[in-house]
Design goal:
Elements (H helix, E strand, L loop, with lengths): L1 E6 L3 H10 L7 E7 L2 H11 L3 E5 L7 H11 L4 E6 L4 H9 L4 E4 L6 H11 L8 H8 L11 H13 L7 H7 L4 H12 L3 H17 L6 H7 L5 H12 L3 H7 L3
Parallel strand pairs: 1-2, 1-3, 3-4, 4-5
Helix pairs in contact: 2-3, 5-12
Length: 254
């Protein structure tokens, strides 16, 4: 799991970022929160976050100074600024100084997850390592890596039925003659993610394959992988891949 620290002097902003972001889907977990730069710098030594998501204007130590001192002490740390329009120029300057990225507030659903995926997984020779990158961005345990036969059967069921728009854990559990609660617990223990998250990741991985055919329409691909709502599909795709399906189809992972 990628370790994340959220830094903002407004409690409800921190709560919103923490609660409204699908961290498990993108392989992240929030390990710390701080209300100012000084506190964040102290906590960084304790929790060693891989990624810091920070506001710019804060008391005691602002985001710009925090980023500079963080990167000096822990150069591998990634930093994303959440910035208001009137702080836009500060954010651009910070990127030149080594801050990884910034998002203009208010950002839309899926934008933060997408920015995190791009930041953590893309690199300059993406085209030469496309398959490897896809595996890294959306990791999935294969049946061969699983010891429990019920979990193996559950993965096999997902692979055969991912396109079912009415897919449910109830149907899955019935097909392998195990209760919903039991298979859910077994699955999480073996794969480290829930059945629904596994299904989502599997569907998006399959959609990436389908989108490599430039003749395919995005709505057709969405239907092929079990989504009735193209907007929901596009939003989920962007959360995991870091870009919209149409952009991925035209440019790949760049």
């Amino acid at each position: 799991m990628i370790k994340v620290m959220i830094v903002d002097d407004e409690k409800y902003v921190r709560m919103g970022i923490k609660n409204d972001t699908d961290w498990a889907l993108i392989g992240c977990e929030v390990v710390a929160e701080a209300s100012n730069g000084e506190m964040a710098l102290d906590m960084a030594g304790q929790f060693r976050p891989d990624l810091v998501i920070s506001d710019i204007k804060m008391p005691k130590m602002d985001g710009i100074e925090l980023a500079g001192r963080l990167l000096e002490k822990y150069p591998d740390t990634k930093v994303i600024f959440l910035t208001a329009y009137n702080e836009f120029e500060y954010a651009r300057q910070a990127v030149r100084l080594g801050v990884s990225d910034y998002l203009l507030k208010p950002f839309h659903d899926g934008e933060l997850e997408g920015a995190i995926q791009r930041l953590l997984h893309l690199h300059p020779n993406a085209s030469a390592a496309q398959a490897e990158l896809e595996n890294e961005m959306i990791p999935l345990k294969r049946k061969e890596e699983i010891e429990n036969r019920y979990v193996q059967a559950a993965i096999e069921y997902i692979e055969k039925n991912y396109s079912d728009k009415d897919f449910s854990i109830g149907k899955l559990s019935e097909s392998i003659s195990v209760s919903e609660g039991h298979i859910s617990r077994l699955f999480k223990a073996e794969t480290e993610i829930s059945i629904n998250n596994y299904l989502t990741r599997y569907r998006i991985r399959k959609s990436m394959d389908f989108l490599k055919d430039v003749q395919s329409k995005v709505y057709e691909v969405a239907e092929k992988v079990g989504y009735q709502d193209i907007a929901y599909f596009s939003n989920t795709f962007k959360k995991l891949v870091g870009t919209a399906p149409s952009e991925y189809q035209s440019k790949g992972l760049q």
